[in-house]
Amino acid sequence: MTRPSIRHRLEFAVSKVCEEVKALVSTAYWRQRQESDLWYELVACTLGSQVRHEHSLAAVRFLDTNGLLDITRMRQDGEGFERKIAQALSQPICPSRAKLSGARYRFPHSKAKQIRRTAEAFYSRGPSIGEILQCSKTEKEARSKIMSNAVGIGPKQASLFLRNIGYTDSLAILDTHVLKYMELVGVFSPVERAWCSLAEYEHFEGRLQTYAERFHEKLAYLDTAIWVVMRVFKWRVAS
């Protein structure tokens, strides 16, 4: 009997996980959220860039628990707001996974600066997050506006933010796991993986959308299932 190829095994696993994802996906709707909730989710996405998922979650929860996401602090003393966030992120933060226990966040000072500048953009100079979402006519327009105002937020993190708050299920989150999967199943070749602009990101997003249509699944379900499968796949390959 012929052994199934890696592509077929991965696609079979993704199709099965998609069914589980649909049963578990959040139905939260952004209009029901307070501005403080939107701010929390945006900070979480800022902290999630180039950092383990578990550690970024631990970091944003740590900041929130210690009252360091309170916008009034930024308005009263921007430099102090940034300094206290950097100090907090420099401490050992203990996520649930034992091998990360006690580890420090990777970029305490640069992320603290990004959080401060983003807070100033939304709450000192421009419209709030909720106001931007309210006046955006499309998901892509909302993503572009979030990227323009939030420091340190690219298309992947902006898409993740909009997904997490229940704003859209039609934007892709093209992280390294999803990109590796797309490469393994032949959606694109390795030389095409890099991008440096939103237009290029949307090009690969369109390819994944076309691929999702083969599964008759929404992008929100498909790329989440891919993320889950590829984390397991990466672990098994490494072990």
Would you give an account of this structure?
It is a single chain. The chain is mainly alpha-helical and 239 residues long. It folds into two domains: 6-26 and 172-238, Endonuclease Iii, domain 2; 32-164, Hypothetical protein, domain 2 (Endonuclease III, domain 1, Orthogonal Bundle), CATH 1.10.340.30. The protein contains twelve helices and no strands. It starts with 5 loop residues before the first helix and ends with a helix.
What separation lies between the terminal Cα atoms? 27 Å
Compute the number of helices: 12
Q: How many domain modules?
A: 2
**How would you name the CATH homologous superfamily of the largest domain?**
Hypothetical protein, domain 2
Radius of gyration: 19 Å
| Residues in helix, % | 55-70%
Structure described in brief:
This protein has 239 residues and is mostly helical.
Topology:
Layout (H helix, E strand, L loop, with lengths): L5 H19 L10 H13 L5 H13 L5 H6 L1 H12 L18 H18 L3 H7 L3 H11 L5 H10 L11 H9 L13 H18 L3 H20 L1
Helix pairs in contact: 1-12, 2-3, 2-6, 2-9, 5-6, 8-9, 10-12
List keywords for this structure.
mainly alpha; Endonuclease Iii, domain 2; 65% helix; globular
